[in-house]
Amino acid sequence: MAAAALAVIILLINIDEQPRKTALLQPKPFLTVLKDRNVLAPTIVFASCTFVSGAINAFLPLQTLTWGYHNSGLYFFVSAATIVAVRFVGGGLSDSCGRRAVIVPCLIITALGTAFLSLVRAPAGLVLCAFFYGAGFGLLYPTLNATVVERALPENRSTALGIFSTSVDGGQFLGPVIMGAIGQYFGFGLLFITASLAPLGGLLVYLLSLPSGKTSPVCPGGRETKP
Hints:
Helix 3 (about 35-65) packs antiparallel against helix 7 (about 125-150) and helix 4 crosses helix 7 (about 125-150). By secondary structure, the chain is mainly alpha-helical. The chain has nine helices and no strands. Helix content is about 80%, strand content about 0%. The protein has helices at about 1-25, 30-35, 35-65, 75-90, 95, 100-115, 125-150, 155-195, 195-210.
């Protein structure tokens, strides 16, 4: 009986305290969170990469048919395998070297892997492009996601992550629509070259919108970087 009474008292105390805690952290309106550059900038940056992904998914199989190759699935297999591998092996790399030290090269690698698709005419080239794209894309998502989590206010994190997640579907939707118009008039080569500019645009947005803040941990080589 004494134990039951004690449990009831503890429960009542917790129920009484909970409203006080939540009252201290009132989430901001959706539009306020959306306009926060710490949320909007990473969303735009990753959307620039899923924009490329949407274009590749839609038009790479058609491009490979023009040079007589019918197994474009090789590209998607290598790309997916690379994404999984780099996230297992290097998913925490930005915790050691800083967010910027991972995001900047990954955006460049993603752009290169996309641009090279305009030159590919053999399965070996597909594999190489898939590896570059998968390596860049694979590390970008966890790093940008961590950027949103650490920069968003605690009471707004759910909203911030919800906004960030729209970068996946938003980019996948816009990529085929916009790149399809370019491919129709100028061909697949210019299509992929143009698509490769999207991650470079994302890089520009990142550098201009998210200036270096607090000092990040030191890299293995002893050099300090900024997030």
